[in-house]
Amino acid sequence: MRFKKRLLAVLTAVTLLTVVGMSVVSCVEDIDTSNRYTFTGNTVASYLEEHSDMFSSFITILKRGGKFNLMKAYGTYTCFAPTNDAIDRFLFEQDSIYKASLLPGAKKIVWTGVTSPNLEELSDSMCTVIAQTHIIPATYLTTEMEGDVVPTMNLNDRYLTMSYGTDSLQHSLLFINGAQVITSDEEVENGVVQVINAVMNPSSETVPTVIERMKFLSIFSEALEKTGLDEKLQPYKDFSYTDGDKIALTIYNVSGCPYPPTRYYGFTAFVEPDSVYQAAGIYNINDLFAQCKIWYPNSSDDDNFKSPNNALYKFISYHLLDRKLLYTRLVCYQIKCGSYFNSESVYLTRADRYDYFETMQGTMLKVIRPLSNATRGVCDDGVKRSYAECVFLNYTKDPDLIAAAPNAFDVTCGPRNIPVNIRIMEPTSVASNKEKYPGFQQEALNGSIHLIDHFLIYDEDVMSGYVLNEIIRIDFSSIAPEYTNNNIRWSDGNNIQFASAGDYEFYIPGTYSDRIKYNHEKARLYYLSPHNSWTNYMGDECMALGPADVSYRLPHVPPGTYEMRFGYQGMTNRGVTQFYFDNEITGIPVDLRLSARDNPRIGWISDSQTDDNGVINDKQMKNRGFLKGSTQYYAYGHLARHEPSVIRLVLTTKYLDGGDHWFRAKNVNDNDDGYDQFMHDYIEFVPVGWLRNENIPLEEKRK
Predict the structure, then answer these.
(1) Domain check: are 431 and 537 in the same one?
(2) For position 492, what pLDDT does the model report?
(3) Most buried of the four, 199, 416, 430, 566, by CB within 10 Å?
(4) CA angle 3, 5, 10 (to 5 degrees)
């Protein structure tokens, strides 16, 4: 078998030949490989038919699901084909689960669609779901599969997870959604067939159900149910959304820009395993509630777990996001969008990658891969790791705190020793530890589940003083969860017809997200997928056109006084914009058509043309309400700081409470012909106390 390149790199040539020669012997099902076809005119469909002794059940599912003719057609597909034995097992197991749910007192399960062990009794609609789960509209050989997900979504608009292992003979194994690839890379005219030994669960189970099934998450699962938050994690799709087939004008006012094809809901749950609770003396829901009252001393409604003011509710809700985040897309790291974008070409190699999200508690969570931090320590699984190779929640870079900890991966701060630098466990490592995490499943129908190694607690003093005491830069594409849940953000363009092959832009209707509001009936908003050639933070950008007048509901930050900044690129096809914050005008209109070099109001001077590396010019620009770009990513081949078209505008400085706050931008150019672009890249919340701290290094403030 051919598997992931980095797995095979450790094998010698002799061992590699042995693996290839013995791969059939080591599989669960014996597959006759004497009649393999490689580019002899076969399609996926004809390959399956010529091996009907192994795939007759799957052929039936494809035909009844309306996908068999697709497998005959020209195109590029990867078909993960389960064997007859695999389908028999799947139907039997799902039927058993269904029957168990009908017993008196049994907890009702989420619909699975399988209510009989007999293939002929499987509904046509379920055949469609199963068929679409096993087909990807792109060709992937196993040697091209890297990371923890197949890069292109299947026909059900869901990513398939990948994990790796070895058998008793140390042969490399590849698993797709938990199903082992037992014969790989059968290339045919319209793609490739990967034979698997199990049916990939079409994931009709929602996040709470998947959590409940993993018995090592029993304490969190019970708390999720007690608080009623499990009900909030049930939605899957907005079936009232009917704009998916519509086409709008592009940003260049020609036809061909697609609406978002779907409006799925999505969720992410960060979950402590039972072992984390038990290590702290927490063995049941009563123990956890008692501890939550210590963590959240200002809570009330002790008798009502479903109250947002209840301590247990606060604790659990802080673990939940309203968007589905795969491990590989928690932050902008190693993100590739076709041949047009590679995040590693945009960022400095050691630039930290981070994002900020509002939790279902209504407070902020920080996610980061701190590539700049080479600190090493021993993780909970006994493996020694570097900070740079991990993804953390609520990370603080404070070197004194890290040094004071008994271990670099056990950092706490504040008088109540609140955990920070909480590691999100890498899913492949979790899946491989079958003794501790049996049956681990990261993906549900409507979300992702990530295990974490310490308690996740929102403490306002810790967040304000250690975690969020920095430039909080939030990309506009990160604000609306719908962008993430519907594969709009960082879209690779696969399976969507765009007006231009090199310009993946979506038209965003005004009712698509409650985080975005149109203030003029003729306003238009677009999301443009990333390009290496652009000058944008995270590569992508949002764009409004005429008459451009849009508002964003911003993520909640801890109460405090902040300097609010707006990041953009000045170009001649922009407009003149009046900014508002909470419906209050912030200064005079800004001409976004001018670069910082061309606008005398800004006063931009290249650092290379100063005697002090731009220190005085920074102060001059700041007095006028502007800053140079960041030092953490590139624009036109040099740092964004050195690019005069990349500008940060100071919007206002004001006290923000913990509630809703709105950013608004309105084009006030009287000569707008409908082509004026309001390009918006990111917004920054900067704590005033951090700004005034003279101990913060200059390079840190320039980030």
Answers:
(1) no
(2) 79
(3) 199
(4) 100
